[in-house]
């Protein structure tokens, strides 16, 4: 039976303090973005806004503002590239992991080890040859090309995550469907893949987080084009604001909203994915 002891109280206090420490940057971010220009320069960072205002957000998103078109355009590009990359990683990564997991040949084991090695290698090592080849194929400067690049660089992670789930999935349903005459592809699409909801949620959130926040790859492969992602737009925009921290923090919050909304709706699958569960 659980008993509430002094040690439990101490642990709770420590956890509360740690949580407050981790949330403090978010507090500074929100409070500063809600302060007017004069108050940002005269008040303490710890102080809540005395004259709460949303003018910083309206200034950034106003149709007459030049920043509005850049931020909204970058936001749209980030959404397109992130969603496209996730779809590619799910559509291609799940069957690849299924074949590697269910196959008993030596090549499948060796290929899986190559996948693990690819996860460990830094992506920056292959940026130059990857850029040259992407330019030769006409993939530089377009969202489609960047989706292909992200799909290739993050495919080992997708295969690795899916493989862990497939290894724990019993084969009873697959064998029963095979006996009934179902093909291998039909078994995967109708039986196996629907059970992979937690794995798909984990792949979507982890890879989506990487793609959405990535600055380096988007800067290299979309340089000079009109399809810059939100992190690159933020970098250019923040550089022009210099010390207008309320506007800078408002831009950061705008970039966080879509990701937080996506996590809010997919958190159940994400938690199940980390727990290794297969229940819907």
UniProtKB/TrEMBL annotation:
Belongs to the binding-protein-dependent transport system permease family. PROSITE patterns: ABC_TM1 (PS50928). Keywords: Cell membrane, Membrane, Transmembrane, Transmembrane helix, Transport. Signal peptide: none annotated. This is Sugar ABC transporter permease. The chain crosses the membrane at residues 9-30, 79-100, 112-132, 144-166, 187-212, 245-266. It holds the Pfam family BPD_transp_1. It is found in: Cell membrane. InterPro entries: MetI-like (IPR000515), MetI-like_sf (IPR035906). It comes from Actinoallomurus iriomotensis. One of its GO terms (biological process) is transmembrane transport. GO terms for cellular component: plasma membrane. Residues 75-266 form the ABC transmembrane type-1 domain. Its main location: membrane. It is a multi-pass membrane protein.
